[in-house]
Amino acid sequence: MAAAKNSLSLNSILLHWKPSFSGQSSSPRLVPPRHCLLPFLFIFSIFLAVLKFSFLISISETPSTCHSSSSLIFRSKAVLSPVKNTKTLAPALDVDNLPLDERAFWQQPDGGRFRSCLQFSLEYRKASSAIAAEKRRFLMVVVSGKLGQQKNEIVDAVVIARILGAALVLPILEANSLGKDDSADFGDIFDVEHFKETLKSDVRIVSSLPSSHLGYKAVAERIPFHATPLWIRSRFKPKLNKHGALLLKGIYLKLSRNLPLDLQRLRCKVAFQALRFAADIRETGSRLADRMRADGPYIALHLRLEKDVWIQTGCLPGLSSKHDALIAGMIRRRRPEAISSSLNMSHHQRRLSGLCPLNAGDVARLLKALGAPASAGVYWGGESPFGGSHALEPLADRFPHLTTMEALAHPGELEPLMNRSSALDAVDYTVFLASHVFMASHDGSMAQAMKGHRAFAGHRKSIEPNKRAMAAAAPLPEVEFADIMKLAHRNSVGQPEPRAGRQRKDVTACPVPECVCKGHGSTPAW
User: What is the spatial distance between Cα 26 and Cα 324, in angstroms, rounded to a whole number?
Assistant: First the structure.
């Protein structure tokens, strides 16, 4: 019976690994006569082993991404003594001092001879002196969205200023309606003086538009996707020369992902070195990270379990039939164009294709399969999940040391940052970056920024869930599921990997080879 059950599971996996949406069901299984049961089982066990081996090989070759506040309070591991260590990144971990069965999970990826490299060409450096001294032309940019989107837009604002040879006025942070954020100045989130000093050889940064230019604001038209430096210059430079000032909005993901090498490296310089958080955010995040580290290495999770994410992806949260029905109704009422990717696919088809976010049960099962010890400290950040504390129960059951920013902080410690979701997101970002292992339940601007930053900082372990393999292997028993997950993720834990699919991936998410090179001297990230 067990063999027959396993054969059905593996057959289902093989049928659904590359999903066919024809709606046809598989043929019924044949049951052998009793008098030949033992020989059949022996032969079938060999056949089963071959099928499993073939399946493991196929999922091991699945390409990675670069290639193609909750009401629940968990037990805090806070240390009440003052924290003196405020390093942003986790110290080197000696896995030999860990229990034998935990070493493989905490082992960091081999970065080889890859190091961050931000050396600029002679041509770029020759042009820098005039651009860095620019006093006639000024670019103003309004950035919006949550922290990940803000960082992306600020990076591209600096690059556009460089392309135009203009000075950049500190970007304006628009109130974040999604996060119900109060409006914030650039200096409320980022270290202004560090930003200016780091980029002083690349672009002149000023705090405000000079009074002589206040009456000459020119608003630019819509920027198309994949805008090139040539398009930017031809479209905006005449206006900039005429008016002396240019105001841009809505630049998220508009600038081409594939720029000349110097501009790609400028992107990395802004993202990983210039955009340092304000001192109060850095200090708060570092204190929380030190508390997490007090009892050993820890895991950081960015969970996307909020209602809007389930609706946007067209997926069901899997909490209960009631919760799933609520989301399904909201999906039907939502305009079709508001649902991302493959509009004609059902929830089941989306899940098999790896398009759905992982829920808390999926995250817990994957971490367990990859060898994460139940005793590990686990820090999670993200919006309040749909379903409240119930949505997180599978994760809390498996990892009792699951905690949040709110549970980890001392009374009143977060008060100065409240009502500013970008500031709280920045604290999460700091704790994520300092973790020994990071994983996101769904792709997005925060997940991509963290993946790239951890790669630039020395290829720190970042698990990239192979959601197609997880969905296909879901029916298997835990032991076989674990074997498949370890093989499916052996090349998805933060190793150096070249940025491919160059029209789709941002260099700040996949910095190899433009910003992380083989055999070069290191350029430290903050």
Answer: 27
CA proximity to 76, closest of 388, 393, 396, 386: 396
Name the 3-class secondary structure at 352.
helix
pLDDT band, residue 425 (cuts 50/70/90):
very high
Kindly write down the DSSP assignment for every residue of 390-447, as one continuous string.
GGGHHHHHH-TTEE-HHHHSPTTTTGGGTT-HHHHHHHHHHHHHHSSEEEESS-SHHH
Contacts of 414 (CB under 8 A, 6+ apart): 284, 405, 406, 424, 427
Cis peptide before 496 (omega within 30 of 0): no
Rounded mean pLDDT of 221-225?
Answer: 83
pLDDT tens string 12-56: 333 333 333 333 333 333 333 444 444 444 444 444 444 444 444
In degrees and rounded to multiples of 5, residue 508 shows phi and psi of -75, -15
Amino acid at 449: A
pTM for this entry: 0.81
Sequence length of the chain is 526
State percent of the chain over pLDDT 70: 75
For residue 229, give the 3-state DSSP assignment.
helix
Distance CA(396)–CA(211), nearest Å, equals 56
Pairing mode of beta strands 516-518, 114-116: antiparallel
Helices (H), 185-337: 186-189, 192-198, 229-243, 261-269, 279-293, 307-313, 321-333
Quote the CA–CA distance of 465 and 489 in Å, as a whole number.
7
Distance of CA 351 to the CA centre of its chain: 19
Distance separating the N- and C-terminal Cα atoms of the chain: 57
Between the CA of residue 260 and those of 72, 243, 523, what are the distances in Å?
Answer: 47, 28, 20
Other C-beta atoms lying within 10 Å of the C-beta of residue 86: 12
Residue 17: what pLDDT?
36
The Cα 316–Cα 64 span in angstroms is: 24
CA distance 445 to 309: 13
Closest CA relative to residue 440, chosen from 372, 352, 370, 357: 357
> And the tokens for 230?
């040539």
Q: How far is CA 23 from CA 15, 26, 299, 466, in A?
A: 12, 10, 40, 24
Neighbours of 132 (CB within 10 A): 16
3-state secondary structure of 378: strand
- Would you state the structure tokens that stand for residue 245, as one six-digit string? 């000032």
Cα separation, 273 vs 308, in Å, equals 32
Structure tokens at 196: 């200016």
Q: Do the Cβ atoms of 441 and 465 come closer than 8 Å?
A: yes
